[in-house]
Specification:
single chain; eight-stranded mixed beta sheet; 20 strands; binds adenosine-5-diphosphoribose; binds P-hydroxybenzoic acid
Length: 388
């Protein structure tokens, strides 16, 4: 087979890139290891920066997002059960859109079906050939047959555990990593959200987050020890512990119910440099991972897709300059989001062995956010998303 851009990975990055290239008449084939239901069954975050909303609109997949998503103009922060609001719409003129990543992926698959862009599911043994030449190719097994795609460019949208990043030679690839000494226990429940906006809570018992999907679907998180077991967390224990960590008013009005999904996720910050090697370009989780505290995972992936789509359309129009700068351009924005997510995680979580002095420092940092518009504006500017 032959195509212009071979995209490895049928998650949000790969699908959005395929969609945007298709809209500009650039051919692409998407190779996905799992079947569609598996990809869509992943529970992921749900806060979109407005630049992501605009990118999805430009790609023509924003209709349901605007119909079913909820724009938020602010969020609550709290320390020791006392909360306050950060009005990022007043501070930045921008809002965010609360709309699940699973829904975004659904909308992209629907668009793929409508336009006929091939997404090959159930591929195995993907290997990347000659990425440092003008004639790269990808081999894989599909439906029991060995296949090969010759292409101009390869987009590595295959996530943290994919093959693309490992294709970059060890003497070229540099990685940066920070693993946090705790995890997030997440619960999804068919209950009305405790607040019309998200609540990020610092507490001496650990972090908590109150989020939502829609008026009858809520998402809550508790900081737990990395070696904690799901079995140790009954729904009752979860709700009791959540009440202890969030603002009193919210605790009093919390509606509880059976969890329909419960899982523990580790927290890490990770960056791989460069994000391009020859004809191979890394996108999204294949190149960087953020702890979910800043809600940047999907938004960073959309940023990369924005830059790579722009660079490839210019390259096909005869101007290679943008593709030559793809890695450095994307990494400038990536590192700022990595910093913001690290800062939010550092200020809002309880670290093992944290001293009372360090707890007070966190509380002073949060109190500064409460009383200083400058501090609030800095958080707001990063939370709503830095410009492309
Ligand atoms: N061959 C084919 N497909 C692969 C391979 C492979 N060797 N390895 C991984 N994949 C597929 C995975 O099955 C997955 O569907 O690549 C896809 C990668 O998707 P994601 O991990 O969702 O990464 P990305 O599309 O970059 O989306 C980033 O996902 O994890 C969240 O917080 C993150 O929101 C961010 C978003
Ligand atoms: C979520 O809704 O799952 C969510 C929201 C905000 C975050 C992380 C997760 O920072």
């Amino acid at each position: 087979m032959r195509t212009q851009v071979c995209i490895i990975g049928g998650g949000p990055s790969g699908l959005l890139l395929a969609r945007m290239l298709h809209n500009d008449g650039i051919e692409a084939i998407v190779l996905e290891r799992h079947d569609r239901d598996h990809v869509l069954a992943r529970i992921r975050a749900g806060v979109l920066e407005w630049s992501s909303v605009e990118t999805l609109d430009r790609a023509g997949v924003g209709r349901r997002m605007h119909a079913e998503g909820t724009p938020h103009g602010g969020t609550y922060l709290s320390a020791q059960n006392r909360g306050f609001r950060v009005d990022y719409e007043a501070l930045t003129g921008k809002r965010v859109m609360v709309y699940g990543q699973t829904e975004v992926t659904h909308d992209l698959y629907d668009a793929m079906d409508a336009e006929g862009t091939p997404v090959l599911h159930g591929v195995a043994g993907v290997t990347i050939g000659n990425p440092d030449s003008d004639a790269p190719f990808v081999t894989f097994r599909h439906q029991g047959a060995d296949r090969r795609i010759d292409c101009d460019w390869i987009a590595g949208c295959d996530g943290y555990h994919g093959v693309s990043r490992d294709t970059i030679p060890a003497n070229v690839l540099k990685t940066f990593e920070k693993i946090y000494p705790f995890g997030w226990l997440g619960v999804l429940s068919e209950t009305p959200p405790v607040s019309h906006e998200l609540i990020y809570a610092n507490h001496e018992r650990g972090f908590a987050l109150c989020s939502q999907r829609n008026a009858m679907l809520s998402r809550y998180y508790l900081q737990v020890a990395l070696d904690d077991q799901i079995e140790a967390w009954s729904d009752t224990r979860f709700w009791d512990e959540l009440r202890r960590r969030i603002p009193e008013q919210a605790a009093d009005s919390l509606v509880t119910g059976p969890s329909i999904e419960k899982s523990i996720a580790p927290l890490r910050s990770f960056v791989a440099e460069p994000m391009r090697w020859g004809r191979l370009c890394l996108v999204g989780d294949a190149a960087h991972i953020v702890p979910p505290t800043g809600a940047k995972g999907l938004n960073l992936a959309v940023g990369d897709v924005h830059y790579l789509h722009d660079a490839l359309t210019r390259a096909y129009a005869g101007d290679p300059a943008a593709i030559d700068r793809y890695s450095e351009t994307a990494l400038v924005r990536v590192w700022k989001a990595i910093r913001f997510s690290w800062w939010m995680t550092s200020v809002l979580h309880k670290f093992p062995g944290q001293t009372p002095f360090e707890q007070r420092i966190q509380e002073a940092e949060i109190n500064l956010l409460e009383v200083s518009d400058t501090a609030k504006a800095n958080l707001a500017e990063n939370y709503v998303g830095l410009p492309f």
